[in-house]
């Protein structure tokens, strides 16, 4: 089982990170507590060997870097993503129907919809406002109490409910939030919450990106606490392990952690893995601390390694036939190397061999996942980062159940296993 302080930090991080913006804010605070300084992309950077810094983009993606004291020749990179599938409010969400104020939602990513019914739902995200003095400001909102619910239709009114009925996200997934309310009521409550959380008065709401989220707290499950259950394990679990490993490193090697937004919708954005964020940061670092111009840039990238961390599908005891019988990762069986011959994962034999050797050094078990040959395969930021940057990459992840559900399940020992392996990677002197 993971060490209690680590597990406690993980559960707290999950609870306080209902959106990518909150996750980045929490990771930034953790980095600053450890001595990392914030850099702004719009300002000139002054970097020196041994520096520790972080930078954000769109407030929903983050890169943190430990600059080596020795010449910049190779980086140990860890990648993850901050977003999770869910329900996001439309720009004009208010629907008044049968004396109820409801909110029109858009499905973000490949969410499992059925588990969203009959849940206590909170509201979180970011809002941009015009202050009384005319300044524009973006602020985080976290309404950490139940304000919405999507009620099920009674089985007496839908006798086919248990026979695989399809759900219509446009008409059947609207949460109810207020009896007898209208559009002015939503604006009034948003302003009230902003005043309570930020002391903002006399403001004009300009725009927002708000999501519903499950109010049930993360918890340990099982007679002996073998499991953790929470929303957004995919992929905040990897964000947590990546930050923990970076901070646990000895600081002698060049190391970098990147957490991109928008992985669940294809990564094609300015702050997504298909965008220029990572390349922009690395080129600025190389311009100040690297050697050899463009030739040196290629040598730096080819002398680096990226471990893309995104959760893997654990074999499900109720559905064992969904896995290849020789590639069914077990909960609490250690990190999983993810392999796909069609490059849906970036792993190859060289990068997999390196990770197996790292796990041997760290004393952690390691597993392998390959999807069934007659089933499709998801993907990660791994192949995208490898394509955009050219860095040798592999995909690994913690095994879990219920991926893309409103509440997912993983093993209470696996986070510690991955942190140990990633820490050994951060400290590794040779990357061959």
From TrEMBL:
For this UniProt entry, the molecular function terms from Gene Ontology, in alphabetical order, are:
aminopeptidase activity; metallopeptidase activity; zinc ion binding
Q: Which InterPro entries match?
A: Peptidase_M18, Peptidase_M18_dom2
* Gene Ontology biological-process entries: proteolysis
The Enzyme Commission number assigned here is 3.4.11.-
One Pfam family linked to the record = Peptidase_M18
Question: From which domain of life does this come?
Answer: Bacteria
Gene Ontology CC annotation, any one: cytoplasm
Q: Which Gene3D superfamilies match?
A: Aminopeptidase i, Domain 2, Zn peptidases
* Cofactor(s), names only, from the UniProt record: Zn(2+)
On whether Metal-binding is a keyword of this UniProt record, the answer is yes
Keyword field: Aminopeptidase, Hydrolase, Metal-binding, Metalloprotease, Protease, Zinc
Q: Which family is this sequence assigned to?
A: Belongs to the peptidase M18 family.
According to UniProt, the name of this protein is: M18 family aminopeptidase
- Cite the source lineage: Bacteria, Pseudomonadati, Pseudomonadota, Gammaproteobacteria, Oceanospirillales
């Amino acid at each position: 089982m993971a060490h209690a302080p680590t597990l406690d930090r993980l559960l707290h991080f999950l609870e306080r990170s209902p959106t990518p913006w909150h996750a980045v804010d929490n990771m930034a605070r953790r980095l600053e507590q450890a001595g990392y300084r914030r850099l702004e992309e719009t300002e000139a950077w002054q970097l020196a060997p041994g520096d520790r810094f972080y930078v954000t983009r769109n407030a929903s993606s983050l890169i943190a870097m430990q600059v080596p004291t020795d010449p910049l020749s190779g980086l140990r990179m860890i990648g993850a993503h901050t977003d999770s599938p869910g329900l996001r409010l439309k720009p004009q969400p208010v629907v008044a129907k049968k004396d109820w104020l409801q909110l029109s939602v858009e499905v973000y990513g490949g969410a499992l919809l059925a588990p969203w019914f009959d849940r206590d739902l909170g509201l979180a995200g970011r809002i941009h406002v015009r202050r009384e003095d005319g300044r524009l400001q973006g602020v985080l909102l976290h309404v950490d109490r139940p304000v919405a619910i999507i009620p099920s239709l009674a089985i007496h009114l839908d006798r086919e409910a248990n026979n695989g009925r399809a759900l219509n996200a446009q008409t059947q997934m609207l949460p109810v939030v207020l009896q007898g309310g209208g559009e002015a009521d939503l604006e009034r409550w948003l302003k009230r919450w902003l005043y309570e959380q930020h002391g903002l008065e006399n403001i004009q709401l300009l725009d927002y990106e708000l999501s519903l989220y499950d109010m049930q707290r993360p918890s340990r499950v099982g007679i002996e606490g073998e499991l953790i259950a929470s929303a957004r394990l995919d992929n905040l679990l990897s964000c947590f392990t990546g930050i923990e490993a970076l901070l646990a490193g000895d600081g002698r090697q060049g190391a970098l952690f990147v957490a991109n937004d928008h992985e669940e919708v294809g990564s094609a954005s300015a702050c997504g893995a298909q965008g220029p964020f990572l390349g922009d940061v690395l080129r600025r670092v190389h311009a100040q601390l690297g050697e050899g111009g463009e030739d040196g840039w290629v040598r730096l990238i080819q002398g680096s390694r990226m471990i893309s961390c995104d959760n893997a599908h654990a074999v499900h005891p109720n559905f064992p036939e969904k896995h290849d019988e020789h590639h069914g990762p077990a909960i609490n069986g250690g990190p999983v190397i993810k392999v796909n011959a069609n490059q849906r994962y970036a792993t190859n034999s060289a990068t997999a061999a390196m990770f197996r050797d790292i796990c041997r050094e760290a004393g952690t078990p390691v597993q392998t996942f390959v999807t069934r040959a007659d089933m499709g395969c998801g993907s990660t930021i791994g192949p995208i980062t490898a394509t955009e940057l050219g860095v040798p990459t592999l995909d690994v992840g913690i095994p879990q159940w219920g991926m893309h559900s409103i509440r997912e399940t993983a093993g209470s020992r696996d986070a510690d296993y991955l942190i140990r392996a990633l820490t050994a990677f951060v400290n590794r002197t040779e990357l061959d």
